[in-house]
Amino acid sequence: MRRAMVISIGGFFVPNLLANFGVIPQLHESFKFMPGICGAAGVFFASMGLFLGYLHQEWIQGTAAVIAGLVLPYGATWFWFRTSRPSASAGLLQLCAPTLLTAIITYFALMMWHARLSGVTFDGLGEQMAADDYGKPQATWERVIYRVSMVIGAAALIFLLLAAIGGQ
Q: CA–CA distance from 162 to each of 87, 150, 152 (Å)?
């Protein structure tokens, strides 16, 4: 999952560039970042499907997961925008809801596929993920940087929330 997060950064920029140059259609003319959000989600789940297919040596199923992971977020958002036609003043939740819903469903589908191939129940998989210490800060300076980053992130979220509330 950590590698998939890093790879999804490219999935944000490439579809935005393609949409700006007219290679793929813009989903909404007022919100130029939507192909990037769909692309980041798609590349994230495609790389998760690729990693899981490689881990379990299930190449056909992994290839199907990669294709579904790439296509579903953009396709669901495109379908939603064509049927609902959101206005230029639509909120962020209305714009990102199809991608978010697709992401949640895809994540649980991939985790259930991984649990089935691993011979673990879904609850057992959650316990294994919670007990995983890989990547957690061990040294004192790592913990300090982690906590400082958490405080800065929380302050930024609060600032954004207050700016959004004050702007309405």
A: 24, 18, 15
- Same structural domain for residues 107 and 81? yes
Report residue 16's pLDDT band, with 50, 70 and 90 as the boundaries.
confident
Q: Which of 16, 72, 86 is nearest to 41 (CA)?
A: 72
Q: Show the 3-state SS of 15-75.
A: HHHHHHCCCCCCCCCCCCCHHHHHHHHHHHHHHHHHHHHHHHCCHHHHHHHHHHHHHHHHH
| Cβ(58)–Cβ(64) below 8 Å | no
Determine the Cα–Cα distance for residues 168 and 159; give it in Å rounded to an integer. Answer: 15
Q: Which two tokens stand for residue 2?
A: 């950590």
On whether both 97 and 161 belong to a single domain, the answer is no
| Rounded distance between C-alpha atoms, residue 77 and residue 40, angstroms | 13
Mean pLDDT of 94-116: 86
Clarify whether residues 74 and 100 are in a common domain. Answer: yes
- For residue 168, the model assigns a pLDDT of 57
Both 10 and 46 in a single domain? Answer: yes
User: What interhelical angle do 59-84 and 34-56 show, nearest 10?
Assistant: 160
Q: So what's the pLDDT on residue 152?
A: 92
Write out the residue range of the structural domain in which residue 144 sits: 139-168
Give yes or no for residue 49 having a pLDDT over 80: yes
